[in-house]
Specification:
The longest helix has 22 residues. The N terminus is likely disordered. The chain contains 8 helices and 7 strands. It has a single domain, classed as P-loop containing nucleotide triphosphate hydrolases (Rossmann fold, 3-Layer(aba) Sandwich), CATH 3.40.50.300. A 7-stranded parallel beta sheet has the order 3-2-4-1-5-6-7, sandwiched between helices. The protein is α/β, with parallel strands linked by helices.
Length: 219
């Protein structure tokens, strides 16, 4: 007799329960929160570095950085103007989960912040499966990655609330069919909010920052 134990399903159910608890803690503090996901090198930290100075004197921001090792990203966020920056080292895991975020939240007095930015581990597979309890999930796609990523990683593109297309300053130099890319996105996530921008030149950053401010005010 063969008995099947649904380990993965149980793990995800437990994670979702903890994510709901995280959301309750964030909501009770009146904080708007986002989970930023992307592949390594797409520009998660660079986007945060360019976002924080534009929010100076407008929003109080805490950043939680997830990475396999080191505190490099949290240090960069702090230097860019985050009022608090917490580094979560996953010890080899390819994603943050609700337990890890809960540990970070316990180190923050959320009532002192308006915006919580969570930078997930660089990966286009695992982070999509583990809810954290944040209000919005943001995916960064970058031009050098290629225009086929929605077709190769549908699970990631299907479940996000907003899409940032980073490094648009490289469009003249990198083969990238924007129409093909956007078609793949639209099939998976019709009407998803999209921000084409360059974290290097600043092009398109105003629309992204204005959206964040609007979401915080809506809280």
């Amino acid at each position: 007799m063969t008995i099947r134990v649904p380990i993965v399903e149980n793990i995800l159910n437990a994670n979702d329960h903890l994510a709901e608890q995280n959301r309750g803690r964030i909501d009770s503090a009146g904080v708007f929160s986002i989970n930023i996901m992307a592949s390594p090198g797409a520009g998660k930290t660079s986007l945060i570095e360019q976002t924080l100075p534009r929010l100076k004197d407008k929003l109080r921001v805490a950043v939680v950085d997830g990475d396999i090792a080191t505190s490099i990203d949290a240090d960069r966020a702090a230097n860019a103007g985050a009022q608090a920056a917490i580094q979560v080292n996953t010890g080899g895991d390819c994603h943050l989960d609700a337990v890890m975020l809960r540990g970070a939240l316990e180190q923050l007095d959320l009532t002192q912040f308006d915006l919580l930015i969570v930078e997930n581990v660089g990966n286009l597979v695992c982070p999509a499966s583990f809810k954290l309890g944040t209000h919005k999930s943001i995916l960064i796609a970058s031009i050098p990655e290629g225009d086929d990523k929605p077709y190769k990683y549908p699970g990631m593109y299907r479940g996000v609330d907003a899409l940032v297309i980073n490094k648009i300053d490289l469009l003249p130099y990198v083969p990238f069919k924007m129409d093909y890319f956007k078609h793949g996105v639209e099939v998976l996530n019709p009407g998803v909010l999209t921000f084409p921008l360059s974290a290097k030149t600043g092009e398109g950053m105003d629309a992204w920052v204005d959206w964040l401010i609007g979401q915080v005010k809506a809280m």
